[in-house]
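User: Okay, second chain of the day. Same drill as before: sequence in, structure tokens out.
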Amino acid sequence: MTFTAIPELIPARMLNEYAFCPRLFFLEWVDSLWASSSDTAEGDRLHGRVDAGGGAAPLPAEGEVKAARSVELASEQLGITAKLDLLEGVDGGVVPIDTKKGRPARGGTPWEADAVQVCAQVLLLREHGYTVERGEIFYAETRQRVPVEVTPGLVGRTLEIVSEARGVATRLAPPPPLRSSPKCSRCSLAGICLPDEVNVLAARQGGRPRRLMAADPDAVPLYVMEQGSVVGIDGGRLTVSKYREVLASVRLIDVMHVCAYGNVQVTAQAMRALLERDANVYHFSYGGWLIGLTTGLPSKNVMLRIRQTTAAARGELDDARRMIAGKIRNCRVLLRRHGGDAMTRRVGQLAALADHAEQAEDAASLLGIEGTAARLYFEALPSLLSAADRLPGPGFSGLRNRRPPTDAVNCLLSFCYGLLTKELLAACLVVGFDPYIGLYHRPRFGRPALALDLAEEFRPLLADSTVLTTWCAIRVGASFPRALASPPGGGVLPGGGAVGHQRADRPDRLWQVLAPADPALQGPPVLAAGDGVLHADPR
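Assistant: Same drill. Structure tokens below.
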């Protein structure tokens, strides 16, 4: 399937990307996907001066060019556009100079992708009547200028890439990833492209995929629960204040998104600063029900949404099988890691069920396999949680219960599952997925089916392991059980909990909560505000 509505002009920088990797070109230009890295940040810093502009670039008939920065040119005949970092006048002609962060290739020659970009700039200058014999590339790492000779072969290669890139841009799906290429390890979009994983699933290469280290940003969610407080911005820091008294101040770069509970205001200035950094604001009721979110412009990746909707409409089980098989294997890992030899038989049963899940013929069979695996897993879980009688309320028997949870362990599980689902819902929105159209969980009004799908494999290793770590803190910490004392209708959060940072991979910073045990209160356990008490919303 192809599309014909594409931009008329291709930026010269995108020709560089296509020559480097056609898939990278598609993800950046067609799908408008982007991920920052230390390399891209350094490149932005180096381009700070040239992007500021300056100097004059008169047409050849109007005067002589001395030096000009950020010169924009376009040609419908060539089908390309470019912004030149620097244009210098030399001997009656001009020389375009492009700035690059790294170093030249061996022998001091320019990389092909860089040469193609500069060649496109030369062709644009010639199209506008300038005399251009060569281009140059300034490599910042070695601080040297490398000449780019515009040979007929380079011109032909550049025009060939223009034609190929235009053809690729009309397609619905991106080109396949590179195979075992050293380019992938430093690519900022490796976590989106997933080159080895895609090639292995498509059987384009054998063996196990390389281990790519995904980005681990330091930013964490900011939870604001103090009623009547105001979230503002002050010199690159988010402030939380009440009656002009500052309750908390955190760096803006350390905030992934903001969760506002109840009567919490966010100033227009803070909202704009958050949206500029793609940080959403989640609005919760006083009782913790998600009401809505404030987000920036939706993802431009419409192709992704089309493919998601098509896959969901077909009802194919390939992805669902892999999700459930991965979940069962991760449950097996957790039991084997914490249970030792006593879990040998249960671990073997889960391994067999994971294999069966990959061969399930229909959705009903897959549901049955998942249910059997969940029963075996949760029946074994109490043996990993000693000293359960130290907490108030009913003990954990190995049965999963919810809405509301009737014991402390199920409360912690529900709490962690809720946090995980919220994070994955946010991730879906950032990437461009519709979180309500799933592949395994059936669509239902108000159910974030895709977020629940993605949560399946992560539940054992993120949520359940966090509960186990928290339980160890209960056994060894004297103050922890006192923090879980249960008043009527709710449990207590330590320290009042008005403003807090929380990170799922740091279980030592997980708030300790206990669900209400009153079955008359219907609804999941949710965080209350101000008084630091956990309540269940009676709706």
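The first strand starts at residue 10 and ends at 11.

User: Thanks, on to the next one.
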